[in-house]
Amino acid sequence: MNGPPNPIGLLAELTYRCPLACPYCSNPLELERREDELDTATWARVFAEAAELGVLQVHLSGGEPASRRDLVEITQAASGAGLYTNLITSAVGLPAATLRRLKAAGLDHVQLSIQDIGRASSDHIAGYEGAYDRKLAFAGAVTGLGMALTLNVVIHRANIGNLAALVELAESLGAGRVEIAHAQYYGWALRNRDALMPTRDQVDEAMREMDRARQRLEGRIAIDFVVPDYYARRPKPCVGGWGRRTLNVTPSGVVLPCHAAQTIPGLSFWSVRDYPLAEIWRRSPAFEAFRGTGWMQEPCRSCAYREQDFGGCRCQALAIAGDAAATDPSCELSPVHSRMPAIAGQAAGSDGSYLYRGR
Ligand code: SF4
Ligand code: FES
């Protein structure tokens, strides 16, 4: 059959509501309203259509997904559709009793975000007093139920020096995996770039630290470490290539190729309220815009890596090069590659204070 390959993952952004106010949040600046959120039955239909389309995993995300009162029913619908269900949560507003109901509803995996080591710093970054203690208790509840746990850490200037301790924390909490990713500068995070950007020395030390941790924990805990784009020489295949592997559904039902796609002007996004998911995936203009390699300019167009990294990130190309179809400036072959370390150096040398995300 001609046409795009089937997606394997769906990010279900159930709500943008969240009790935390993290300055690195990459949700849009203009948050969709609660009244516009999809209802339970529509999510159930989306999950059934996703499974039919070939999706294997659904990530129940937000905002904070536990802000939805129907999270258990939504989870049940996803699991009932045959999807592997992963909950991405801050743990705030998610009591152990609800976790037990989620497990009974078929939840397969929990990803818990943690902001830093220690109560004071972690709660300061989250903008929420008491969050750290709740997270530790929640992690115990997850493993106590025999569920798989991944610890997520978004790193930036304030916590990048604590990676070894964060990995040790994951170990002590019984996590099977740690995902350490640098802040992605979209939405609120872009506003906070000066306050968040680490120095190159910090990044280099973090990479050495992660090599040591990987060796020490080999076969026990998997560690995913994503290097910050601003100090990289080659881009990552953002979202596995535009319209190739994954799709995002926003709280109101708009289907996006990536979480920041709405920052790109001129793209037309379709909604699950109007079209079946398969039609959106195969035919919607936004998915077609940067699918494959036909849209590429030089140097990507004739580059040997074009089928590996797909030219990097379209949203970053727009933000830094001013053109969503340009080579991702994190690539050293980009004509504007030098802007990345220049911006990073300037940001890392400033002392911005956090602008917290509105709740
Ligand atoms: Fe990837 Fe384009 Fe850079 Fe080649 S020029 S490595 S395809 S981003
Ligand atoms: Fe949009 Fe990378 S975040 S393509």
Characterise this structure.
By secondary structure, this protein is α/β, with parallel strands linked by helices. Helices cover 35% and strands 13% of the residues. The chain contains 14 helices and 9 strands. The chain has helices at 40-53, 71-80, 96-104, 119-126, 131-144, 163-173, 187-191, 193-196, 200-217, 277-283, 285-289, 306-309, 314-321, 339-348, and strands at 9-13, 57-61, 84-89, 109-113, 148-155, 177-182, 222-226, 246-249, 255-256. A 9-stranded mixed sheet has the order 7-6-5-4-3-2-1-8-9. It is globular. It binds iron/sulfur cluster and FE2/S2 (inorganic) cluster (FES). FE2/S2 (inorganic) cluster is lined by residues 238-239, 258, 260-261, 313-315.
Could you give the topology of this structure?
Layout: E1 9-13, H1 40-53, E2 57-61, H2 71-80, E3 84-89, H3 96-104, E4 109-113, H4 119-126, H5 131-144, E5 148-155, H6 163-173, E6 177-182, H7 187-191, H8 193-196, H9 200-217, E7 222-226, E8 246-249, E9 255-256, H10 277-283, H11 285-289, H12 306-309, H13 314-321, H14 339-348
Parallel strand pairs: 1-2, 1-8, 2-3, 3-4, 4-5, 5-6, 6-7
Antiparallel strand pairs: 8-9
Residues 238-239, 258, 260-261, 313-315 line the site of FE2/S2 (inorganic) cluster.
